[in-house]
Amino acid sequence: MELTLIAASLSTALILSNAASISLAASQLKRRTTIAPPGGKSQPVSIVVPSRGVEPFTHETLERAFSLDWPRYELIFCVAHADDPVVKLINRAIARFPKVPARLLIGDDRISANPKLNNCVKGWEAARHNWVVLADSNVLMPRDYIQHLMAAWRADTGLVCSTPIGSRPDGFWAEVECAFLNTLQARWQYAGEALGLGFAQGKSMLWNKPMLDASGGIRALAAEIAEDAAATKLVNGLGLRVNLVASPFEQPLGRRTLGEIWSRQARWARLRRVTFPLFFAPEILTGAVVPLALALVAAAGAGFSLWAAALAVLAAFYLPECALAWSKGWYLSPRMVAAIMVRDLILPAMWTRGWLGGAVDWRGNAMTIRTKAAELEETPSSA
């Protein structure tokens, strides 16, 4: 009976913490609305976009970047190698939108083992304005992209970010990636912000350039293997906060495979493990597997139906999660519950992988992330 009571109590506590995280995230998030451009004088903004390779939505994301509803902004595209196929697409987009100040910079500043950060250095140093956005090339920027970033800046802010919200999935595995990105990772990140634990996310990062330059500039982000982890620690060290936009931006997914999801999520898990180990350790408890197992132990000990216990736990976990996606206008389909269940089955293996060494794939490079965040080896990838 003692084991039954302990299992039931722990399962209940995890179910309640899951519900609390959804409530906290919902309190921070808003359904997308359009923000009008500033009526008076506005701050000019530089947008630095590190690019590599051509992806299914590259044409659209490029066009969106040139169509922002902000009075004064410049685009700085950064590519490491001149023979990258995305160079032609960027040059065509620059030619198509001559009214938008835009430049393409080619070169690779090896300041770290982080290829994305290395690619951004030249863009940061070339930026003409005091407000700089570092934006991944696969972010689908809405017309009011800059307005949403600026609206999240407060007097005690050191950095504004947006998590990626997966959209336009093509196939079941892409829906599994939506389940990872949206109602799990974004949800917990916004719940953390509600508790005063703001974490940076590298997809879209709004910086005040003089502030970061006074703390070592973009090169200071080489202190950690992940630039967003370094940004979080730098901003917190200054006594400032990382804020998230109220309506995060889309990342269109297209088709995904199980291997692609595993590769990306394994890399992120390993990076979280070496940069924030105390926060990574309890991630094993965020899915339904552990509370479900505990509930089944409790049900067996009390003589209750195992099927009824399982259905009760899954309903308590997944119905609020789907309600969060629906209320914020995120992708939701009849297959999403199945996708969320598959995600939760993957989570324990992903969490275990985060504690292990070995190589992970980082956009064509096999990266070996060691026990210290700054120790990373880069070798040619078979991919």
TrEMBL record:
Q: Where on the tree of life does the source sit, at the highest rank?
A: Bacteria
Transmembrane ranges, per UniProt, are 292-319
- The signal sequence is 1-25
Keyword vocabulary terms for this entry: Glycosyltransferase, Membrane, Signal, Transferase, Transmembrane, Transmembrane helix
Topology within the bilayer: Multi-pass membrane protein
Question: Which Gene3D superfamilies does the annotation name?
Answer: Spore Coat Polysaccharide Biosynthesis Protein SpsA, Chain A
Where does this protein reside within or beyond the cell?
Membrane
Question: What pathway or pathways are given for this protein in its record?
Answer: Sphingolipid metabolism; Lipid metabolism; sphingolipid metabolism
Q: Please state what the protein is called.
A: Ceramide glucosyltransferase
Q: Which organism is it from?
A: Mesorhizobium opportunistum
